[in-house]
Each structure stands twice: as structure tokens, then as C-alpha cells.
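Chapter review: from sequence to fold.
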Amino acid sequence: MILPITVYGHPVLKKKGEQIDKNYPDLDKLIEDMFETMYYSNGVGLAAQQINRAIRLFIVDAAPYGEEYPEAKDFKKVFINAEIIKTEGEEVEMEEGCLSVPEIREYVKRPETVYLNYHDENFVLHKGEKFDGVTARIIQHEFDHTDGIVFIERLPNIRKLLLKRKLSDISNGKIDPGYKIILPRKKRKK
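The C-alpha cell string follows.
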């Protein structure tokens, strides 16, 4: 089932996700729905916060980058309760986009290598697994979501200021990304 995606300004995007266990209700179905939603929306990663759940779960399928980046070929994974244990290498600047911030693409600096502990969809623990290049970038972007961070927050203040109007349009629903979205609730006047 294709799920609606929360957009910039929605409070769940600011929530740090709670850890889950293998008894999380309908976890297999949720993961399946997340992949279906991600593919429908032309994404390469999707975190639970983006489908209105504040849990530590994200998925990645970097295959669309496989031709340009060998590490992305056939890279499809589920990350549950992920924790970054170390980063290495230069901070590389690369353009990023986000399904929760449609129509905005910006350059973000991130370390080129990341090491993670995480559980996969079968709750097998992976310790100290190393990821490089574009896969490391996608993982860090989605991991940020599970910590309540949207990539816009990693931009210099001047860029955020210049994007203020576009971000306001997103949170007010003045966009059509081509997929279902969940807008932030507006404060009611008393």
C-alpha cells in the first residue's frame, strides 16, 4: 500500500525515533509498504518519520545510482535501530533532495564513510558494518530522519534563509510533488 509522506513542518519529522523490537505490529507489512511508497515517489531512501511514525526504521535502495557509483549497484537494505558508531574520511559535498522537502535540492557536506550497528528486517544484528560513497550518504540522510533531523537543517543559515519562502509553500501545501502528502496541522486561532 502506498502511504502518504509527511512534509516539511510536520512535527513527526522533528521527533527522535523510538527503538522497536521484532514484535512491532505488522513490521513486515510496514517495510513492504515503505518500499512501495518509496518506489512510487521516486526515492532512494525512506525513514519511518516520513510516513508519520516516530520509530528507528529506514530503508534504502540505492540501485538508481548503480551505474555511476559501483557501491550502489544492487544495494537494497532495511535498517532497524541503527546507530552510527563512527564516520571517516573527508566531508564531501553533494546535492541531496528529500521526499519530505519536495522540489528543493541543496548541497550538503557529509563524511564519505560511515560505520553502523543495526538490525535488518529479520532482526539479525550487524555490528560495525562499513558503508562508503553514495550509499553512506543516503544512509546518513535517512539516519538523520530517525534522529528528527531534516537535511535542510544541515545547510548554512544563509541558504536556509533563502529557502524560507519555498519551505513555507511546502508546509502550506502549495506544491504538488506527484504523491500523497501529510501537511502539518495549522495552529487554530482562539
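Two observations follow directly from the output. Residues 27-40 form the longest helix (14 residues). Residues 5-182 form a domain with the Peptide Deformylase fold (CATH 3.90.45.10).
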